[in-house]
Amino acid sequence: MMKLTAFVSGNVQDVGYRTRIVDIANAFGLKGMVENQKDGRVKIIAEGEDEKLKWFESAIDIKDALIHVSSIEKKYSPASNNFDNFGKLVLKGEPETWLDIAPVYLKELVFEFNKMNDNLGGKMDKMLGKQDELLDEVKNINRKFDRVLENDDSDATEIVREMRDRSYGY
Fold it and tell me: What is the pLDDT, as a whole number, of residue 100?
């Protein structure tokens, strides 16, 4: 059994990083704790099997829409066996669970919004395609009007000229 002590820098406070670390550590069956530091870093102490700690070390290097780990200072040492589970240390006056859950919901909202925009973009492309088809039809009609007017032997010439003049405005 080994202990990993890591100091994580980047955009890692007030974005749900500690909650993610607790979830990851519990998934690996590790024991320890995670806490915010006054200098903006997050301190992680994790104890467990060597191989699981190596996987955990990779998993805590998170880069997503809210969290961006820029560096991890790490040190390995023998496990102290002082922990019964893995938890988040919350200091007096520090927001607890609601602040850690909010970024998760915000991320889901951003994902759904982007998905909606992608879908809307596809529909707008279809609409623009239909508009292009309509403009092509108007051009075809105008060419037919021009052919009728070239012959100028019809009583409908004045009506066709008026219709053509209206359609050129589109």
Answer: 63
